[in-house]
Amino acid sequence: MIDDFSRRGFLRTAAALAALPTLIPADPAVAAQELPDFPADVALYRSAYRNWVGEITADGLWACAPATPDQVVAAVNWAWRHGWRVRARGASHGWSPLTIPRGTPSDTPVLLVDTARHLTGLSLESPDAVRVGTGVTVEALLTRLEEHGLGVTAVPAPGNLTLGGALAVDAHGTAVPARGERRLPGHTYGSLSNLVLSLTAVVWDEARGAYVLRTYDRDEADCAALLTHLGRSLVTEVVLRVGANTDLRCVSRTDIPAAELFAAPGTDGRTFESFLDRAGRVEAIWFAFTEFPWLKVWSVSPTRPLTSRPVRTPYNYPFSDNVPRPVADLVGRMVSDGAWYLAPVLGNAQYDVAALGLVATLSADIWGPSKNTLLYLRPTTLRIATNGCAVLTSRARVQRVVAEFTSFYRERLTAYAARGRFPVNGSLEIRVTGLDEPADVGTDGARTPLLSALRPREDRPEWDTAVWLNILTLPGTPYAEAFLREIEQFVLTAFDGGYAMPRVEWSKGWAYTDEAAWSDGEVLGSVVPGSFGEAGWREASAILDRLDPHGVFGNAFLDRLFR
Questions:
Q1: Which is it for strands 110-114 and 122-126: parallel, antiparallel or unpaired?
Q2: Any residues with CB less than 8 A from the CB of 119 and at least 6 apart, and which?
Q3: Is 283 a known active-site residue?
Q4: How far apart are CA 22 and CA 48, in angstroms?
Q5: Whole-prediction pTM value?
């Protein structure tokens, strides 16, 4: 059994990663030497960078925390004049190298711009619109909306995400209309990017020969590229369309076998599709080497069902937010001792913790304002790596996508285990959303986010749904990359455009070789651009290049992706 020191070390590491980045005030003399003529009124720091799982790290980078959008512009113009690049940083809750690539040296001329310190303005613009600084967290936004009887249909589970980061990667939740349900005004079943009415970004002004702030309305062509910009721009403020809040009931189940839930289409029983039709808001978490997924089903419930526990705050699964000792001990053995063969034991321990925790905390059936059931993941949860893709298809084909994918996933996991290899020790997570229909925002001529994975295909109007697929495993797990490459190649082959097609989930892992993510040249150079259509990809790339002709907002990875 792992000793207490190792276990404590593991938990201390998780806690450290959960904290805000450490900002060490700059020595004025050093700053003057290394960053000559930097705007005096913009606070400078030395800072470490850590992404969500700590796989991408850099120490001693220069960072600043502008107090206003004008100070952001001043910092960007300084960077342009001195040959530096600028990377916006919010919560750093991501996996992919969109902010900085792996191996970025501390002396790299890159300036981190921390948005979460001061770009946090939040006010109602009208009864159905809210003006938000991009450093505002999703939880803070939803809390303010709730106070005014407003809300959104779906959001990611972590509330600590900054809105700017969420919009940059078309962040999403899980929701499609239940059978007979109609979309409420001000709501969308697509990504958060599809709620944007206008945005203000730092862009190049040729006439002034400098970077400036400019506001773009949703019906402007350039706005289409900025709605999901992947870090190729810096947005300081947005106006979002919102609608009336709803009360949601969330029922969790751990008693349906995967063989029944993920059965072939047309099968009777408690299938994934049956819950989707009934409630529209479904998430399945299937721990590796177990037989019973944790199924969450949200339903619109204006009044509290008698069996539901009312919840007045979010994060109602404490057994998930805090690493339990049995799980921590197993993770410690696997990471410290290389006991990766314990993956089946860990999977079953995670299932047991969920099944027992739901009962012990009375959280198997909860009800309340949408925020309190949609947000359920704190930064103190187990930090784990994940791949990700969205499979676009028609609503009628969701069960087929789920069945084919889970069948291949189970078969390959079993085949690896038979050879003594355990590439997955976390879970498979499945969510379903609608697409980014621009009409949802209620603005004539509204543009579709060009680089959103949820961008509709004009030539396939019957594709109205996306199935999100994520496989989670501990960083450093042997054979994980090779396994995920097989999964990715299967997805590209099985969903080849006949009845479905995949797009990558920007913030997660993709473009796998046998050794690393974000490395496969064909996926980066052909598959990803092709999934958006050559014309759409070129249009987005051309807009972003024109708004930032000096490449200030970029890094080596983005340069390769958009070359």
A1: unpaired
A2: 66, 69, 72, 133, 134, 135, 136, 164, 236, 237
A3: yes
A4: 7
A5: 0.95
Amino acid at residue number 465: T
Token couple for 205: 């002004």
Model confidence at 23, in pLDDT bands (50, 70, 90)? Answer: low
Please confirm, yes or no, whether 179 is among the known catalytic residues: no
**How many C-beta neighbours within 10 Å does residue 147 have?**
10
Q: Which of 283, 404, 486, 488 is catalytic?
A: 283
Query: Which one is catalytic: 431, 447, 455, 485?
Result: 431
Q: Hey, is 230 helix, strand or coil?
A: coil
SS (H, E, C) 282-344: EEEEEECCCCCCEEEEEEECCCCCCCCEECCCCCCCHHHHCCCHHHHHHHHHHHHHCCHHHHH
Q: Is 429 a catalytic residue?
A: yes
3-class SS of residue 194? helix
Residue 548 sits at the vertex; the CA angle it makes with 543 and 549, to the nearest 5 degrees, is: 95
26 is written with which tokens? 């700059």
Q: What whole-number distance in Å separates Cα of residue 332 and Cα of residue 554?
A: 37
Set 7, 85, 87, 93: catalytic member: 93
Helices (H) and strands (E) in the chain, counts: 18, 22
335/322 Cα distance (integer angstroms): 18
The set of residues, in sequence order, having a beta carbon less than 8 Å from that of 260 and lying 6+ positions away, is 267, 269, 270, 271
Q: Is 82 an annotated catalytic residue?
A: no
User: Quick one: which H or E segment has residue 369?
Assistant: strand 365-369
Reported as a single tens digit per residue, the pLDDT across 521-557 is 999 999 999 999 999 999 999 999 999 999 999 999 9
